[in-house]
Amino acid sequence: MSERGTAFVQHVLEDQLGVHVSSKLQAGQGERVELINPSTGAPIGSLAGASPAQVDEAVAAARAAFTTAGWADDDAGRAQTLRRLADLVHEHAEEIAYLDALEAGKVQRLSVEEDVADVVANLRYFADLADHHEGRQLQGPDGWGWVRGIPIGVVGVVLPWNFPIAMLGWKVAPALAAGNTLVIKPAEDSVLSALYFGELAREAGVPDGVVNVLVGDGPGVGQALGLHDDVDMLTFTGSGEVGRLFLGYSARSNLKRVSLELGGRAAYIVDSEHTKDPAGIAEDIVGAAFGNAGQNCTATSRVVFVGDEDGYEQFSQALARQALAFPVGDPMGQEAAMGPVINAGARDRITTWVEEAVAAGATVLARQDGLPEGEGYWVAPTLLQGVPDSVALGTGEVFGPVAHVIRVDTREEAAELVNGEPYGLASTVWCEDIGTVKWWTEQVRVGTLALNGYSEGTVATPFGGLRQSGFWGRDNGPEALDGYRELMTVWVAAP
Questions:
Q1: Chain-centroid distance, C-alpha 37
Q2: What range(s) does the Aldehyde dehydrogenase domain occupy (predicted)?
Q3: Strands, DSSP E only, in 187-344?
Q4: Burial class (CB in 10 A: 0-12, 13-18, 19+), 461
Q5: Domains delineated in the chain
């Protein structure tokens, strides 16, 4: 437990502080959002979100902060502030992770080690980039000049619930480093860590109006930001359906820039001709499939074994053993590697997809028994084989602890399984022959291809998808910083 985290929750709920504008927590005046603990199904409380007037207030505060000297025009000062903010996030890692565990079912121990640490790394990395940004010099017979990156302005940040604080870091760090000001809307299922981050930004000395946080739902606050004529850019991670709405909002308003990361259906390909340790590979696959209860856009949805029936039989048995041993339990505890799914709707949908697949002829390769008791939103880690394309699980993004195991004869078949569908975010290939690895990298078309171990890369590597997994822009890496800047050409004519 976290005493400071618990005290923050009590303070926010007692005073209905669902709005953080101009460095101040304020009472929301809009619709209430119900906060539920997914581990127990019990209510945490309800919180009043932002009203339409408070959305306008937050955007106006962000605009005023952007046009006031001292933030957008001070690269060195911003970098110094971001480093102080990184230090504070590191210092308060336990309570941030507690908030995400309480509200989103995140495993607190892993959130400290991975999610919060990732926010710290992002803030420090982009602080360094902000401090050393250089333009491009130009010269010709008619004159000389340069191209410089300038901040876009007010950025709306609409976050997902599966990695509440980590995704905030992915968006906020480069946007702030570029000199923008922000209005952040966390997902309704996970609002607390974003509000807490707003308080840390104030403590770090981020100027008033630079970081604003609004609790609210998508049709209310999200749509209002998408349609707002004084929001210059909107960045969103979530479903393709909602991403398309934001593109429409842009067209209906001021043609704001829109950056979308829209999920995926990652494959984990095992090239059996070039593997030595099936058990070790199986352990990595299970972590990639069931970590965060499978609620990850790069989670392994399909395991593709390239090889013969005998090899597949041995491998599938090793995979089943690992799946049955994957630790599921209280996200506040020290042993769990997976907690509940986010809400009752997600639990019911995932369960329905599995039941539909089995009714259509799929077989269960492994499914855990003995899930935690009570009213929480628990879904058993499950491996299926023989899932037909005619059911939802055969073509859709399950976003839960379920993976479909497939055997194919050739590498070409495996590559086509990845390339021949609308998603193109990420996949993994295990192959220990360097020449064949090169073939895989030339054949598989995704935004991130991990080799010999599941990974999304690092803070320095761009993250985003091909095809319908993404639209314009990348998170992470210098490319993310560029995504939050406009290009300005300065040209001096020759006398």
A1: 20
A2: 28-490
A3: 211-214, 233-237, 257-261, 266-271, 300-306
A4: middle
A5: 3-262+469-490 (3.40.605.10), 266-458 (3.40.309.10)
In angstroms, how far apart are the furthest CA atoms of the chain? 81
In the structure encoding, which two tokens stand for residue 429, read together?
A: 């290939």
- SS3 letters across 263-311: CCCEEEEEEHHHCCCHHHHHHHHHHHHHHHHHCCCCCEEEEEEECCHHH
Block means of pLDDT (10 residues each) for the chain, 495 residues, are 90 96 97 97 97 98 97 95 98 98 97 97 96 82 93 98 97 98 97 98 98 97 98 96 96 97 95 94 97 96 97 96 96 95 97 97 96 94 96 95 97 97 96 96 97 96 93 92 94 92
Q: How far apart are CA 398 and CA 350, in angstroms?
A: 6
Spatial neighbors of 264 by CB under 8 A, at least 6 apart, are 297, 298, 397, 423, 424, 425, 426, 446, 465, 469
State yes or no: is 57 an active-site residue: no
Rounded to 10 degrees, what is the CA torsion of 34, 37, 43, 44? -80
Q: What angle do CA 50, 97, 57 make, to 5 degrees?
A: 20
Catalytic residue of the set 103, 188, 297, 431: 297
Give CA–CA dist 386/394, Å, rounded.
9
Q: Model's pTM, two decimal places?
A: 0.95
Residues 161, 167, 170, CA angle at the centre, nearest 5°?
A: 170
The count of C-alpha atoms lying within 13 angstroms of the C-alpha of 452, restricted to the half-sphere facing its C-beta, is 11
What's the CA gap between 53 and 384, in Å, rounded?
49
Q: Is 261 a catalytic residue?
A: yes
Distance of CA 475 to the CA centre of its chain: 9
- E strands present in 192-330: 211-214, 233-237, 257-261, 266-271, 300-306
